Structures are given as structure tokens and as C-alpha cells.
Amino acid sequence: MNLILNAVAALGRGALAFLQSAGSLLIFAAEGLLNIFLPPYYPRLVGRALFTMGFLSLPVVALTAIFAGMVIALQSYTGFARFSAQGATASIVVLSVTRELGPVLAGLMMAGRAGAAMAAEIGTMRVTDQIDALTTLSTKPMRYLVAPRLLAGIIAMPLLVVVADVLGVLGGFIVATVKLRFGSAAYIQSTFQILQPIDVWSGVAKAAVFGFVIALSGCFHGYRSRGGAEGVGNATTSAVVMASVLILSLDYVMTEVFFSR
Length: 261
Fold this sequence. Notes:
Elements: H1 2-36, H2 43-55, H3 58-80, H4 89-127, H5 130-136, H6 141-179, H7 184-194, H8 197-223, H9 228-259
């Protein structure tokens, strides 16, 4: 009997801790969004965050996208060859990249790179009392540290996803024409015949949400970090894990919204 009660108590404590964390995250997100629209504004900080999140993440996103497109083309051809439907390879590549893999892979790469960096930077500021110093100087930390990064994430991720879409489709095109002996004109024609504006715009919309989630996760865990260097390390790990889980979860939800019939 005691074992059952202990198990129920542990489950209850876990549920309460989860609800408390979720509530804190939602309040933090609402406050961060509100501060985006309230003066004073910090365009220099937004530009710096755009450079860090966007430009510095471009190489890893580009490499991931082009190789993902190449692998999709190769695997699609292999699978469709069993049913003599190799002509559908171009359709599968462009739809997979624009709808799903472009936003998701770019988001995961940015979470591992930029999200971790944000959590480490803000976490270091927290444990060294720099955030408290900002408050002492009558500067609101949410407006100075969090809002510019949230805005930069919303802007940078769609731009990265557009690049990832182009390079992913290009990777599929290279494999299809060089290795699989597709005709270039026929492959391009099949790509544009199947591609619809909603395929691209759904991926861009996902990217904006993912960018916000990545910045939010990094800022949230960095802002709440405690306990010196160990606390900063834990905050960095938690930021990447949370952002990755939210990206995959929200990807399903948004796919259901855009493409359910």
C-alpha cells in the first residue's frame, strides 16, 4: 500500500512540477512578446542576434539541407523502383523538403547552435549578477536581453528555411540527374508541376514559430539558471532539449492545421 501511495505522490509531484514549468514558460513568452512592441527599442541588439542566429547558422543549415535532399532523392528512387514509379522522385523531394525537412532540420540545427549559445550567454550573465546590474541601471532585462532575441528568431528562421528549401531541392536534383540519370528538363518540370504556394508558405510559417521557440527556450533557461558553471551547463542542455521537443511537437500540430482535410 505504501508503495502505491509513494508512486502516486511521485506522479503528482511530477505533474505539478511540469505544470509549474509550463506556466512559467507561457508567462515568460507572453512578457517577451509584449516587450517586443514596447519602447525603448534596441535595433543594434536585434541586428547582432540576427547575425548570430541567422548568418552564423547558415553553413550548418546549408550542409544539412543539401545532403538531406540528396538522401531523399536516392531513397525515394530506390523505393519507387519497386513499383516502376521512379518518376515521382522529384515530387517527393520537393514536397518533403519544403513542407517538413527544411523547417524541421533547420530548426534543430539552429536549436543546437544558436539556442545553446543564447542559454549560455544569458545564463552566464545571470550567475555573474549582470542581469541584476541591468535592473539597478533602470534597464529592463526582458526588453534588453529577451525581446531582441525573440524578434531575431522570428525573422532569421524563415530566411534560413528558404535557403534550406532551395539547397535541399538542389541536392535532390544533383543526385537525380548525375547518379540516377533523370533528364534535367523533365525533373525541373515535375518539380514545378507538383509544387504549390501552400507548400512553401506552410514551411515558412513553421519556421517563424520554430525561430520563436528556439529563442524562447534559450532565453528562458538562461534567464532562470542558477548555481554557477554547472547551472549554466544544465541550462544549455535544457534549452536544446526543450527546443527540439517543441519543434517536433509543433511540426505535427501545424502540419495538421495546414494539410488536414
